[in-house]
Specification:
single chain, 211 residues, alpha+beta, Aminopeptidase, seven-stranded mixed beta sheet, 34% helix
Length: 211
């Protein structure tokens, strides 16, 4: 199932939280070789996890992490504006109607439908929080995943070549895309909406309360 959880509420779901941060370390540090910080418990966290982001997390029947996304509004501190403005010619992106999506993570061995389910969950965040678009920075390897899911982004800027290329992309809300992604995720959009209301009880204005 999909879980919509603000960082301040992760302590209520310790198994889910622990497995998410460990899977992030495995993906970003071990498999991709990114320059990220992993603590002595094997968890990958950064400063943006301290800004009470909204997580979309796919869990298995035992409550363990299979995949996740992280959202923050661009009206506050974001990874894009802090570290990747060169991808947009030096400018920043700030709007109450655009949120940043980061840390797209899939557990090793996760079924292919998990990526589509996460994107469906991201679309639900847009619907429920009055967000028109979300923006994200990704490397060349992610393009294949986005195309396979059926919701490729509009590329706003890129740097580098081949597998080392990184880009910033914009995803816009679309009912047509929602239906297509739901089929790939094998998931009922109405059920996803129920999960959102059951989990994301904090208001968007509470996003920047420090955990």
């Amino acid at each position: 199932m999909l879980n919509f959880i603000y960082a301040n509420d992760l302590s209520r779901n310790p198994v889910l939280a622990e497995s998410m941060f460990r899977d992030r370390a495995d993906q970003f540090k071990t498999r991709l070789g990114w320059d990220v910080t992993v603590d002595h418990h094997g968890r990958e966290r950064d400063e943006y996890d301290n800004l009470n982001p909204l997580y979309v997390i796919y869990s298995d029947p035992k409550g363990r992490h299979l995949g996740s996304l992280r959202f923050l509004p661009t009206t506050g501190q974001t990874m894009l504006n802090d570290h990747f403005t060169h991808l947009m010619g030096g400018g920043t992106l700030e709007s109450p109607f655009i949120w940043e999506c980061t840390r797209f993570c899939l557990a090793q061995g996760a079924p292919s439908k998990i990526a589509a389910a996460l994107m469906l969950g991201g679309g639900e965040v847009m619907r429920q929080c009055a967000v028109d678009d979300f923006v994200g920075v990704f490397d060349a390897r992610m393009i294949r995943i986005y195309r396979r899911v059926g919701w490729p982004p509009e590329i706003l800027g890129s740097a580098g070549d081949g597998n080392d290329q990184i880009s910033v992309g914009l995803w816009s809300r679309s009912n047509e895309d929602r239906a297509k992604i739901a089929r790939r995720a094998q998931m009922d959009p109405a059920l996803v909406a129920e999960w959102f209301h059951a989990g994301a009880n904090a208001k968007p204005t509470e996003l920047y309360t420090l955990a």
